[in-house]
Amino acid sequence: MEPTTEIRRLLDLMPASGRMMTKIISKPEQPKVIETQFPLPWSGDRPIWINFDLWSRLTRPQRDMILLRTVSWLTGIKWFKPDIYQGVAVAGFLGAMAELVQRDVMGVVVAGGLTALATTQIWRNTRSSQSQLDADEAALKIAQRRGYSEVEAAQNLLSAIEAVAKIEGRFNLNFIELLRCQNLRAIAGLSPMGVPETIKRE
């Protein structure tokens, strides 16, 4: 597989938000098929590293779904969106700065603590089971705009998760991957049972 040609194809597959926020980089030395890091608030491009030798062992629909899923997860992480935790984090930071100017040590500690607490909650929410399942479902929606049916997209993503584990020499899927597979089986009509709401919130 020629990385430049495949990268060009994958860029065409992505939604516009993915093209703006992410960058695909060939990394032949990595042991994983595809890898990315949790994006921090100050990071610019959100890199996606692909080992194209391993990548080529997947079918084209599997590659499409793995890429769309990775992009959906990365673009779904928004540090600066208006919700309660972002509001508390900003208020805490501004409060800490004001207290620092006034040399109020206790005020700085309290405001800094609020900022840390809110930032930790944002971090946890974006790494929860629900956020992982949401990324899968967002990828399925994008895939439907690229000509796949929902069932077809779910089946391809399901088979891709299992294929990636085998390629990487992993004999068992981790807990999140098992949840994702169960959810995808339900969407694809392969199982009557989805993932219980209580587990999604963990």
Structure summarized in a few sentences:
This protein is mostly helical. It is built from 10 helices and 3 strands; from the N terminus they run H-H-E-E-E-H-H-H-H-H-H-H-H.
Order of helices and strands: HHEEEHHHHHHHH
Shape: globular
Strand order of the largest sheet: 1-3-2
The helix content, as a percent range, equals 55-70%
Number of helices: 10
Largest sheet: 3 strands, mixed
How much is the average pLDDT? 82
Number of strands: 3
Radius of gyration over C-alpha positions, nearest whole angstrom: 20 Å
Oligomeric organization of the protein chains: single chain
Judged by helices, strands and strand pairing, the structural class is mainly alpha
Describe this structure in words.
With about 200 residues, this protein is mainly alpha-helical. It contains ten helices and three strands; from the N terminus they run ααβββαααααααα. It has helices at about 5-15, 15-20, 50-55, 60-75, 85-100, 105-125, 130-145, 150-165, 175-185, 195-200; strands at about 20-25, 35, 45-50. The protein has a three-stranded mixed β-sheet.
